[in-house]
Amino acid sequence: MADNEVNFGFKKVKMSEKPRLVNDVFSGVANNYDIMNDVMSLGIHRIWKNLMMDWLAPRPGQNLIDVAGGTGDIGKRFLDRCKGNAEVKIVDFTQEMISFGKRKTEDYRYKNQLAWFCADAMRLPFSNNNFHSYTISFGLRNVLDINKALEEAYRVLRPGGRILILEFSTLIDKNLQRLYDKYSFGVIPWLGKVIAKDKESYQYLVESIRNFPKQNELVDLMISAGFKEVKYRNLSMGIVALHSGWKL
Ligand SMILES: C[S@@+](CC[C@H](N)C(=O)[O-])C[C@H]1O[C@@H](n2cnc3c(N)ncnc32)[C@H](O)[C@@H]1O
């Protein structure tokens, strides 16, 4: 296959290089990842993640695959909602994020229901028709081939299973978008430099948000991957969007 150029933030890199570059970003930020999320979003990422769970409405006895699961925020919320009567597989391709997540959940009461896997969203190490739910939170924009990741999601979901995608998106108001751009390009890389001692990684993070498909474009990609009843909700006026679809 030709090694075409793809976006890595606003830079163009060879397709074959991108996974390692993304991996380097998250290896570098793993130890400060949680604190940076709280600082950058003023804690609002917690509300967005809770809203994702509200819409998913997990039920006891279900299983979840949380892809690009990072330090386990979504997996834990799912288990909490099911009072531990559920199984969660967390998949992430950055070992440092998984290690941090494992340390963070050492004393978590449902930690035995959490299993961690180091793998790529485009090649999930699970058989077909396996999971009731598939979630990916702030992960899809980093994946080399979004279509492939969505096809994998579809493959591993059971018939009747559901996908929920939480991702940065496009604000519904252009003036607010300009204000938000000023904040994200002006402040976030600087916060990365001060708190995580890593300006470049946070520069990549804000740039990668701008390359991600808009709300309706992601709907189309989900439909192309086979999902039905695809809908989305804007959160915080479109700073992020939650997309839902079903394997029917
Ligand atoms: C911004 S973090 C999100 C972590 C977590 N889901 C959350 O919401 O806090 C993105 C995560 O995606 C992972 N990631 C990026 N590309 C991936 C891929 N192709 N396959 C699996 N994980 C990936 C990174 O290692 C990182 O842990």
Overview of the molecule:
This protein has 248 residues and is an alpha/beta fold. It has one domain: Rossmann fold. It contains ten helices and nine strands. The strands form two sheets. A seven-stranded mixed sheet has the order 5-4-3-6-7-9-8, sandwiched between helices. α8 (188-195) packs antiparallel against α9. The longest helix has 13 residues, at 44-56. It binds S-adenosylmethionine. The site of S-adenosylmethionine (SAM) has 19 residues, from α1 and α4. S-adenosylmethionine binds next to α1 and α4.
User: In percent, how helical is the residue content?
Assistant: 40-55%
What is the residue-averaged pLDDT?
95
CATH superfamily (homologous) name: Vaccinia Virus protein VP39
- The side-by-side strand order for the widest beta sheet comes to 5-4-3-6-7-9-8
Radius of gyration: 17 Å
CATH topology: Rossmann fold
Beta fraction: 15-25%
> Helix-strand pattern, N to C?
EEHHHEHEHEEHEHHHHEE
Give the CATH architecture: 3-Layer(aba) Sandwich
> What is the level 1 CATH name?
Alpha Beta
Tally of individual domains? 1
What ranges have pLDDT less than 50 throughout 5 or more consecutive residues?
Answer: none
Distance N terminus to C terminus? 33 Å
Contiguous helical run count: 10
By secondary-structure content and strand pairing, the structural class works out as: alpha/beta
SSE topology sketch:
Elements: E1 5-8, E2 11-14, H1 18-29, H2 33-41, H3 44-56, E3 63-67, H4 73-81, E4 87-92, H5 95-104, E5 114-118, E6 131-137, H6 146-156, E7 157-168, H7 174-186, H8 188-195, H9 199-211, H10 215-224, E8 228-235, E9 240-246
Parallel strand pairs: 3-4, 3-6, 4-5, 6-7
Antiparallel strand pairs: 1-2, 7-9, 8-9
Helix pairs in contact: 1-9, 8-9
The structure holds S-adenosylmethionine.
